[in-house]
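Lab meeting, item 3. Inverse folding demo.
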C-alpha cells in the first residue's frame, strides 16, 4: 500500500475508534470520513462495510492491549510493581470501557481476525498475570478476562455532572482497583 493511502487508512481507523467511543457503533460513516479528512468513497475503498470497519477498530484496540502488555512484560524483571501499575493505567488510557460498550452488539459474531487477536491478547495478559502472581502483586484467582473487564468498567466515560463533581474520580477508581487486585498477605 502506498504511504499516502496507508496514512488515510490509519486516519480512518483512529477517527472511527474515537467516534465509536463517543457516539456508539452506529455513528454515521460519513462523519467518520469527514473527520478523518477523506471522502466517503475512500472510506469504502478501505472498509467495504460498517462491519469491516468495526472489525478493524476491534483489532486495533486489541493490538494496543497487546502492545501495553508487551511493554509491561519487558519492564517486569527490572521493576515488577512499576510495570504492573503502569500496565493497568495504560490499559485504562485505551478507553476500553467506552469502545467495548459501543461495540458490544457488533461483537456477537466476531470475525476470525478479531477472534484471533482477542485470543492472543488474552493469552498475553494471562502470561503477564502469571508473572504478577509469582511476584505477589495480584490475587491468585484473577483471570485475564476479569482484569480487562474491570479496567474497562473503571475507564468508562462518566457523565459531565460526575466529572465536574469528582474530577479525579477515574484516578481514584484506578487506585482502588489496583489496591483490590493486590495479593492478600
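The presenter then showed the designed sequence:
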Amino acid at each position: 500500500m502506498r504511504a499516502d493511502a496507508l496514512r488515510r487508512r490509519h486516519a480512518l481507523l483512529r477517527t472511527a475508534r474515537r467516534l465509536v467511543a463517543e457516539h456508539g457503533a452506529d455513528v454515521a460513516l460519513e462523519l467518520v470520513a469527514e473527520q478523518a479528512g477523506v471522502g466517503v468513497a475512500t472510506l469504502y475503498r478501505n472498509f467495504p462495510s460498517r462491519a469491516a470497519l468495526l472489525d478493524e477498530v476491534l483489532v486495533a484496540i486489541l493490538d494496543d492491549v497487546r502492545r501495553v502488555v508487551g511493554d509491561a512484560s519487558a519492564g517486569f524483571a527490572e521493576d515488577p510493581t512499576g510495570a504492573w501499575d503502569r500496565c493497568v493505567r495504560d490499559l485504562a488510557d485505551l478507553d476500553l470501557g467506552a469502545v467495548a460498550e459501543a461495540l458490544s452488539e457488533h461483537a456477537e459474531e466476531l470475525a476470525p481476525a478479531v477472534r484471533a487477536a482477542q485470543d492472543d491478547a488474552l493469552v498475553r495478559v494471562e502470561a503477564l498475570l502469571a508473572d504478577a502472581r509469582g511476584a505477589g502483586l495480584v490475587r491468585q484467582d484473577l483471570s485475564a478476562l476479569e482484569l480487562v473487564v474491570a479496567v474497562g468498567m473503571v475507564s468508562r466515560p462518566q457523565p459531565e455532572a460526575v466529572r465536574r463533581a469528582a474530577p479525579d474520580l477515574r484516578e481514584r477508581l484506578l487506585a482502588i482497583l489496583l489496591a483490590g487486585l493486590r495479593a492478600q498477605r
